[in-house]
Amino acid sequence: MRNKQHHGGRGRFENNGGIELEDVEKVFTLRRRTGVLRRSREEVRAVDGISFTVAPGEMVGYIGPNGAGKSTTIKMLTGILAPSGGRLRVAGIDPARERIRLAHHIGVVYGQRTTLWWDLPLRDSYTLVRRLYRVPARRFHRNLDRCVELLDLGALMDTPVRQLSLGQRVRGDIAAALLHDPAILYLDEPTIGLDAVSKVKVRGFLQDINAEHNTTVLLTTHDLTDIEQLCRRVMVIDHGRLVYDGTLDGLHTLGESERTLIVDFERVLPPVTVPGARTVKTDGPRQWLAIPADASAAPVVAAVAAHHPLVDLSIREPDVEDVIAAMYARLPRG
Ligand SMILES: Nc1ncnc2c1ncn2[C@@H]1O[C@H](COP(=O)(O)OP(=O)(O)OP(=O)(O)O)[C@@H](O)[C@H]1O
């Protein structure tokens, strides 16, 4: 895969893995029939003046509620959609003007749909990817061997894509996105619907790739654990505007968000009281304890377990919508 190296060039991130957006807008015009001969025009500002920079090698979370403008941004960053205004550069390239050239620098993975050939075995899909991107044989085999090993694809190479489980298919898609050594990887909900083991595998792989090759990652997800484990920086978009750019802890602090400890005791108990947590609900022997999302759950778990016999315990992370709603509630109105 791509070696860490510094390239010279005209733009700030010329020829490497940087992303720059300056006042980028995307306005969709909808035409509606309002009568036999009458039509009305309605504008949707899907992206409404967004500016940010992602440095080569950064892993950044891009989150927001449904309809916020995330997919529209990613589509502009791949060149599928042209912006209505503003300036975009990905690896120094204007995506809408040079989509084919850009394709050699980016990889895209959609958790909810595959870019592989449905009826072909993974092995054949990868051969097609190699031809499409004209990847030299040695480089292709080196990258493929690495992906097969790290993503545990060895036993699946001769299986048609339609017979793969969701987790296997996503792993197959991630490998396909990396065979041509892209400097930048866009991941759109890569862990959606995956079981816990597959999620851990996918996250571990992305960390390895980033550490080894300095791959820039822009990650869209509704799973805050993805962000917590992969991204030091998170950007929040809502109604087409960037409303937060900072750490996940900072976002939790702003939103005073909480994670929930769900504890099953051996018997029905009165609501437990332990420092750093408050019991928000009880149902028979089960109790729900809220703790601040930026605090460690370990002392609370230890305190609960020290005094009461436990049968089971799980932790529920706050979801993106909750965190953003809480953040708004705390922002001064203006
Ligand atoms: N081709 C299109 N024509 C008209 N409106 C569109 C089009 N694509 C997106 N929109 C609108 O733009 C807004 C942003 O949509 P977008 O798909 O970017 O959101 P999102 O943040 O990716 O949401 P989700 O999390 O649901 O995928 C929405 O109001 C959507 O209805």
From TrEMBL:
GO terms for molecular function: ATP binding. SMART domains: AAA. Pfam families: ABC_tran. Keywords: Antibiotic resistance, ATP-binding, Nucleotide-binding, Transport. InterPro entries: AAA+_ATPase, ABC_transporter-like_ATP-bd, ABC_transporter_ATP-binding, P-loop_NTPase. The keyword Transferase does not apply. PROSITE patterns: ABC_TRANSPORTER_2. It is found in: Cell membrane. Residues 19-264 form the ABC transporter domain. It is a peripheral membrane protein. The keyword ATP-binding applies. This is ATP-binding cassette domain-containing protein. It comes from Streptomyces pathocidini.
